[in-house]
Specification:
By secondary structure, this protein is α/β, with parallel strands linked by helices. The chain contains 21 helices and 15 strands. It has a single domain, classed as Rossmann fold. Helix content is 38%, strand content 15%. The strands form two sheets. Strands 1, 2, 3, 4, 7, 8, 9, 10, 11, 12, 13, 14 and 15 form a 13-stranded mixed β-sheet that branches. A hairpin with a 7-residue loop joins strand 2 (41-47) and strand 3 (55-61).
């Protein structure tokens, strides 16, 4: 027995060493593809390692931008071919928060100890990605360079709380969608204080400030519309999709008049900015600071009070990132703001009042969205952090947000009726409060406007009895992209669910309807039927998922929206104002309206 144990020990050690060696091998460079000419010049991409029929064009600059200015014309390189096999630099960002999020997933999915160690070592050994303020790059993955007919285009906006992430992240770089007949585009956009900081000096110089990341996304969509036919994509069939802050970005794009005509369908995974009441000058809600006020405090240690725009743009970038790491209490304000121009009104209000384009929509969220956030927020609602203390204190704090009777109903529905059961129920409610109510709200409004709408709840959990985070925030992404990591457990049923979901997403991009021959029927959503598709295996439609819970949360959301009574600027006036879109696109925006 002792000899057998020694043999098993060395076999395990050898397996770990081999796995560690394989995971840390640098990727072989891709063979070059044939050259293509886009409106900036000639590009050469790579031939994908896993499927030679798929060509990859990475690090394509879609615009340029000085700090805290709107994106400008993309660079030209003419007849000199640009090697586009490597990704462009990621946008400057604090790194600690995103790493902690990934580590929480590794801890929570229930890996065996040896695989958890391997995953932790692998993640810790990853080289810091190249990053820069000059980061407006996108990546194109296509299998249709030689096709007779253009295919649908899917443009992905990554998540990361508007503070972190990149379109080049490996989980988005997979062939699952492309092999089912679309061209996939993933983009970078400016993040955190470099993407969303507003300041009176910047407003004085340019007429508005703070929505730079949102303008970047628009510039990327303009690039796609101008160039994607060269890659075999159909510029008249563009689906914009994203997760978390990426899905919030989709709702933000919908609420801006400058995005009209840039996309034809939308997919929102766990995110809509219906709660965001951030205004450039002053929020109508007394407990929400203005974007300029936060920006002024953020930069107060870096520039004197009388600083002008040129002084702000001269601050060393490293100092801005260090300040963001030191003042994480302020970074939650680095979001798109209502400035009367790029965003004429609160996004939730625009959704409620129909001041967004009504398009075919696929939207949903995950069953356990709150599991990765509750330990930090310690509250069942994002509107009141740190609801702790005695049971009576917690009940009073909840009543302050929702009112006495709705708070009592929520306690009962989520099982928060004692200190012993509070945290579990509060984590469940937090997921519905942060994500679920907003997904149903935007989906219901779209369906009521007569547009085909399809709602889902992703409820698949990791196949380990030791997992603790359920169907957590972002868990659906590897199923959408077919990009499962070898470090995480995947069952045979997961493979079937992945195939179904990639078909759903690409069917929707093709026709505006996720249904087709190879997938279970997904009923259309209406307010009357309230039917969702529950995404686990086997897939099952469900009526009135969490309906009573979401009803109460929606009453509070609508009351919050109704408290914002002012419209900062009429939409027709905003359309006549120039947000600094890349040269040559202003006329196209006007034509699309």
């Amino acid at each position: 027995m002792r000899r057998l144990s020694i043999v098993l020990f060395f076999a395990l050690a050898g397996g770990l060493a081999w796995g560690w060696f394989k995971l840390n091998q640098p990727a072989e460079p891709m063979e070059m593809s044939e050259p293509l000419r886009i409106d900036q010049g000639v590009v050469i991409g790579g031939i994908d390692h896993d499927n030679p029929d798929i060509k990859v064009f990475n690090g394509l600059p879609y615009a340029t931008a000085r700090r805290w200015t709107a994106p400008d014309t993309a660079p030209q390189w003419g007849a000199i071919p640009r090697d586009s096999r490597k990704f462009g630099a990621e946008c400057l960002q604090p790194r600690a928060g995103l790493g902690g999020f990934v580590n929480d997933i590794v801890e929570g999915v229930g890996l065996p100890w040896w695989k958890r160690i391997l995953a932790e070592k692998y993640l810790a050994a990853q080289a810091r990605p190249s990053e820069s303020e000059s980061c407006l790059f996108l990546n194109v993955r296509t299998g249709n360079l030689d096709g007779d007919m253009p295919v649908p285009v899917m443009v992905w906006i990554h998540g990361g709380s508007h503070q972190a992430g990149a379109g080049s992240t490996s989980i988005y770089q997979s062939n699952g969608l492309v092999e089912k007949g679309v061209v996939l585009v993933t983009i970078n956009y400016r993040l955190g204080p470099l993407g969303y900081l507003a300041h009176p000096a910047l407003t004085e110089a340019d007429g508005t400030s703070g929505n730079y990341g949102l303008l970047d996304q628009m510039a990327a969509l303009h690039w796609v519309r101008r160039n994607i036919n060269t890659f075999g994509g159909d510029p008249n069939n563009i689906t914009v999709f994203g997760e978390s802050a990426g899905a919030q970005s989709v709702s933000e794009l919908m609420a801006s008049p400058y995005s009209v005509g840039l996309f034809d369908k939308v997919i929102l995974e766990s995110g809509s900015s219906s709660y965001n009441a951030l205004h450039l000058k002053q929020s109508p809600l007394v407990n929400v600071r203005s974007a300029e006020d936060v920006g002024t405090e953020f930069l107060s240690t870096l520039v004197p009070p009388a600083a002008v725009a040129v002084d702000l743009r001269a601050i060393p970038a490293a100092a801005i990132i260090s300040r963001a790491e030191a003042r994480s209490d302020l970074t939650g304000y680095f979001l798109p703001n209502v400035d009367g121009n790029i965003l004429p009104e609160m996004i939730g209000k625009a959704i409620r009042d129909g001041n967004v384009p009504h398009l075919p929509m696929l939207a949903g969220y995950n069953a356990d969205e709150g599991s990765l956030f509750y330990d930090e927020i310690r509250s069942p609602t994002i509107l009141s952090k740190q609801i702790t203390g005695t049971q009576d204190e917690r009940e009073a704090a909840l009543a302050d947000v929702f009112g006495a009777n709705p708070a009592k109903a929520l306690q009962s529905l989520y099982g928060m009726e004692s200190l012993e059961t509070w945290d579990r129920g509060a984590a469940d409610m937090l997921g519905d409060d942060m994500f679920g109510v907003h997904m149903r709200f935007i989906g219901k409004q779209n369906a009521d406007a007569g547009q085909p709408t399809w709602m889902y709840m992703f409820s698949r959990t990791w196949p380990s009895r030791h997992q603790t985070i359920g169907a957590y925030h972002s868990a659906e992404i590897p199923f959408v992209f077919d990009s499962h990591s070898s470090l995480l457990p995947v069952s045979h049923a997961d493979g079937k669910l992945t195939d179904i979901m990639t078909h759903y997403w690409t069917n929707f991009a093709r026709t505006g309807n996720p249904n087709g021959d190879r997938v279970p029927e997904w009923p259309k959503y209406t307010s009357e039927t309230d039917t969702w598709n529950e995404l686990h295996y086997p897939v099952e439609p469900q009526r009135e998922l969490r309906a009573r819970k979401l009803d109460i949360l929606e009453e509070n959301l609508i009351a919050r929206i109704e408290a914002v009574t002012e419209i900062v600027a009429p939409r027709d006036m905003a359309l006549n104002m120039d947000p600094g879109l890349p040269s040559g696109d202003e006329e196209a925006v006007a034509d699309s309206n």
